[in-house]
Design a protein that fits this description.
It contains twelve helices and ten strands. It is α+β, with helices and mostly antiparallel strands and about 400 residues long. The strands form two sheets. The chain has a five-stranded mixed sheet. It has a five-stranded mixed sheet with strand order 4-10-9-6-7. Strand 6 and strand 7 form a beta hairpin. Helix 2 runs antiparallel to helix 4, helix 8 crosses helix 11 and helix 11 packs across helix 12. The longest helix has about 35 residues. The N and C termini lie far apart (about 65 Å). It binds copper (II) ion. The site of copper (II) ion has 7 residues, from loops.
């Protein structure tokens, strides 16, 4: 029994480690650094590798030499089994100690301190401030605006732009119903619907927090990673010096969806960044204009489907069946099928609108993330699709009023 188990285990381990898939993305060195911090860390790493390699070779050479030179077969005799004197013994212990001290604290220490100080230095020379919020299992980005310096540098001010960035790998690929295609534009589990966009060459101060558990915003090519801690605001910074798309992942085990919250950053040259900011701001003002008009049920449902599949389906599933007991079904759910508004026109506690705006326990609050139209649409969708047919409609104006 045991033998069989061990044999099966070693066989699977063997095939696991020799499978070509394991080596599909194999590389020897650090990924190409694109920020000053990543470059500095790479330099520190290279210097240290050289130093430890030199120490290794010297020590090994002395050892091999001594072993061969003093071997028994040429008649070598042990001279003595203890040191000539205590003074000599102390002396030859202190010498290597001093050498290591010098190497550690000076030769290796100075570049290491330099790197660490650089990482921690989030003072005012930044051009703009970005807030990054981790939550199970997505990242939220909010542009807090430019600094004086950013304005002087002619950086387009993105203040007010905020969005959620969700994994966009199709559910069928994750289920295994369809095989993931190897598309470098949309790599498996490393692509999102809304990418973070940053201007090339600007120093971006990042404020980081979390709404639930520890997360860690990590892009290897940026060389920075910082824990997002609920209840705290922590800082880091990036300055991407090369345009391109950079991918990373959450680096802190944060629950069931830990592997499903990638980071994708598009670093754009200043002009393209400006165009992006302008387009985003237009979309925001369009959305707020849309919130004031009366929507038809069909339009709300159509819009709601998109919002639902982006934001809610990770937990409640595309079909609305949920994953009970952790994530309740929307289909036939009590809250999705009972009235929202009381006789005074205000929304009822524990109603559908209350739940989506404010969340409860594991159900996230959406009021800071989705706009009025999106919330109205997703609620209308849940009530009139996914197997429910309540028949009523929530208008964006009602959501707007409910926020007050
Ligand atoms: Cu996470």
């Amino acid at each position: 029994m045991l033998k069989q188990a061990i044999r099966n285990l070693s066989l699977s381990l063997f095939f696991l480690l020799t499978s070509p898939r394991v080596f599909a993305q194999y590389s020897w060195n650090f990924p190409e650094p694109v920020t000053p911090m990543a470059l500095d860390t790479l330099h520190v790493h290279n210097k240290f590798m050289l130093i430890v390699a030199a120490i290794f070779i010297v020590v090994l050479a002395i050892m091999i030499y001594s072993l061969i030179k003093h071997r028994k077969s040429v008649g070598h005799q042990a001279v003595a089994d203890k040191a000539p004197s205590t003074a000599v013994e102390i002396f030859w212990t202190l010498i290597p100690f001093a050498i290591l001290l010098l190497i550690d604290f000076v030769i290796m220490g100075i570049p290491a301190y330099h790197s660490v100080v650089m990482m921690e230095d989030t003072r005012n020379e930044s051009d703009m401030v970005l807030k990054v919020t981790g939550s199970q299992w997505r990242w939220q980005y909010e542009y807090m605006g430019n600094t004086e310096k950013g304005n002087q540098n002619g950086l387009e001010d993105a203040k007010g732009i905020k969005f959620v960035s969700n994994l966009s790998t199709p559910q069928e690929q994750m289920d295994g119903t369809i095989t993931p295609v190897n598309d470098p534009e949309r790599p498996y589990l490393l692509d999102v619907d809304n990418r973070l966009v940053l201007p090339v060459g600007a120093k971006v101060r990042i404020l980081m927090t979390s709404t639930d558990v520890l997360h860690n915003w990590w892009v290897p090519q940026f060389g920075s990673s910082r824990l997002a801690v609920p209840g705290f605001i922590r800082e880091t910074w990036v300055q991407v010096d090369k345009a391109g798309t950079y991918r990373g992942q959450c680096k802190e085990l944060c629950g069931k969806g830990h592997g499903y919250m990638p980071v994708v950053v598009d670093a754009l040259p200043k002009e393209e960044y400006k165009a992006w900011v302008v387009a985003q701001k237009e979309a925001i003002s369009e959305a707020s204009a849309g919130a004031d008009k009366e929507w038809t049920k069909e339009d709300l449902i159509a819009q709601g489907k998109i919002v639902y599949e982006k934001n809610c389906a990770v937990c409640h599933q595309v079909s609305g069946a949920g994953l009970p007991p952790a994530f309740p079904a929307i289909t036939g759910s009590k809250i999705s099928n009972s009235p929202i508004f009381g006789e005074d026109g205000k929304y009822l506690p524990d109603s559908h609108l209350d739940r989506v705006l404010n969340g409860i326990r594991v159900m996230p609050a959406w009021k800071a993330v989705l706009n009025d139209t999106e919330i109205a649409a997703v609620i209308t969708y849940e009530r009139n699709a996914l197997g429910n047919s309540v028949g009523d409609v929530v208008q964006p104006a009602q959501v707007k009023a409910a926020r007050q």
